[in-house]
Amino acid sequence: MEDASFNLPPGFFFSPTDEELVLHFLYSKASLLPCHPNIIPDLDFSQLDPWELNGKALFSGNQYYFFTKVNENRTTENGCWKEIGVTEPILTTVDKKVGMKKYLVFHIDEEASHGTETNWVMQEYHICSSGFETVSYASARRRRKHDQSWSKWVLCRVYEKMRSQQGVINCCTCSDDDESGSELSWLDEVYLSLDDDLEEIGMPN
């Protein structure tokens, strides 16, 4: 397919919620159901560094969206994606867990002991199959029928983390008594923002 087929028409902005990404896009992909509009492409991200996604993934705002097959080896030619150990539940409006979201950061030079951390962040969406088995009898049958492909796909949202604005940085600095005045890294700020997100959605029992 041509790259242009992934571009949104003028005036349209793709800004789905986590629930919409799982229910309307990833679930349809994993269940082999038609997805309308079918605007998110399939990519093998092991063949692409994050700065090479332009023109290949669906781009909206400052974020890239694409499907890829589940692969624990997230190495590319120039680096690798590493999980930061944060997993968020994705809940419906009735607090039904239907998926989870993992956070990864791109590091350059995977041959090194740690590599050089970049500002590229990936949110990797996975389906929670148990959450769909009770949605309907038909969906449970589709799950069994296409069991081999059920967990084969994940949906990725990639963006480049920008430096925080001064007001946010001030909130992350040490107290006035700390003469060093050191700031939290952008990754620490991600953890702090996750705390706020989790408070809004509530954690499952």
TrEMBL record:
Keywords: DNA-binding, Nucleus, Transcription, Transcription regulation. Gene3D superfamilies: NAC domain. It holds the Pfam family NAM. GO terms for biological process: regulation of DNA-templated transcription; system development. It comes from the Eukaryota. One of its GO terms (molecular function) is DNA binding. The keyword Iron does not apply. The keyword DNA-binding applies. Residues 8-161 form the NAC domain. PANTHER family: NAC DOMAIN-CONTAINING PROTEIN (PTHR31719:SF85), NAC TRANSCRIPTION FACTOR 56 (PTHR31719). This is NAC domain-containing protein. The lineage of its organism: Eukaryota, Viridiplantae, Streptophyta, Embryophyta, Tracheophyta.
